[in-house]
Task: structure prediction
Amino acid sequence: MRVVQPLQPQLSDYSIADIQFDLKSRDDIPQILRGLQHLYVNIELRNAVFKLLETHIQPDANRDTGRPGMDLWKIFVLGVLRLDLNWDYDRLHEQVNNHKTIRQMLGHADIFDTHYYHHQTLKDNVRLLTPELLEEVNEVIVSSGHALVKKKENEVLRGRCDSFVVKTNVHYPTDINLLYDAMRKIIVLTARLCEDHNLSEWRQYTYNVRHLKRLMRTAQMKKRSGGGTEEQKGKRQEQMVAAHQQYMGAAQRYLDRARTSLNNLQKSVELTPVQMLTILEIHQYMADADRQIDQTTHRVVEGKTIPHGEKVFSIFEPHTEWVVKGKAGVPVELGLKVCIMEDQHQFLLHHQVMEKQTDDQVAISMVSETMARFPSLATCSFDKGFHSPENQRELAEMLDVVALPRKGKRSQKIQEIESSQDFLQAKKKHSAVESAINGLGVHGLDRCPDHGLDGFKRYVALSIVARNLQRIGVILIEQERKRLERMRRKKLKKAA
Result:
């Protein structure tokens, strides 16, 4: 049975409200911890967040395992720390077991407390946070942040919308190295299944993997050769094609052999449910290998061009896209685009993971979904990539001011619109969204190490929540500094 926080405090428990932070510290750990403390100390805010955690996590995690699950507050703290501080699980594991202030935020005192967090426990529990839960939590946190900066009742929100690429954890894709990735998994997984049933068909599987890798390297080196006369170029082209054919031939033989082994296993032995899932995984890798062999044959041997829509850029992260944004020095990025909406108080109101979408296709949904959460949004700025005639019309009906520059030659009417004071003011402040994008990148959202599309969306959503909590922490620390400075000056005046 999971609880948010234990109702009956123990001797070793520590009051989170009593945690003190070094106001002179310029590190980001006190900032994010101060934001978490604000969330916990504010009773109304805490109850709202805890209710969301109970609603989304409790039903799936309440299993009769004979032991209590990790407290939901601890799960939330661990996820926020991992993302905002750009830690992997190894660093998180070390810090939660040894960092004094972090352990206090988790509810552990310095005395009589020997609780130890295991590495796998951290992974299993942080993954319970879903993107849907985090979006609702973010709405509550942003609303509390608006109240903290003393936003007036009638003050409107002015948004800035832009997109950027979050890279997936993949290597640079080519036809032959993607084929090697698929074949390596096929050989290793099939060999392990055979070992489990004392079959010796794949006892030399490590050699088989090395053999394929040597053939792949040979094909790569033949492709890189260049220069010389036309006759030499033609000869090298023939050698390159022959090297690729030799590599694909070996891959096809191993592929056929693996299919035979799996058929024999399914007919002759009784497989466990886990082994059946492994076989399904192998069949998926086989489909990937067949596709790569087919595409390599068309491209190298037959000289055809593979349509971009048929290409896959990662065997293990198939949602990866080939993104070309035209940035200087960045010819291509491998990942997914993420669109964010930031307000004038530097809070991130909403985000959207763009799956095979362009900027102009998400402009309406970004504004409408943000307004559903924060109805006071009245102004929004974009760059030219979000422009389309339909977007201009619909956004003008939804917002008071739409700073969306048009592409191409402008008519006199358009020039008047884009020369207005409101348009110019919103356009002038639009570049501040780049600071938010850079901050997200520095604090973990440059590359996603989590696996799968669900893991990618969870990672992005948790990064948005963590960044907003850090923003609250920065505001609170700055307010405390100013308060202490005022007190110091009052004492000096009295002393004088």
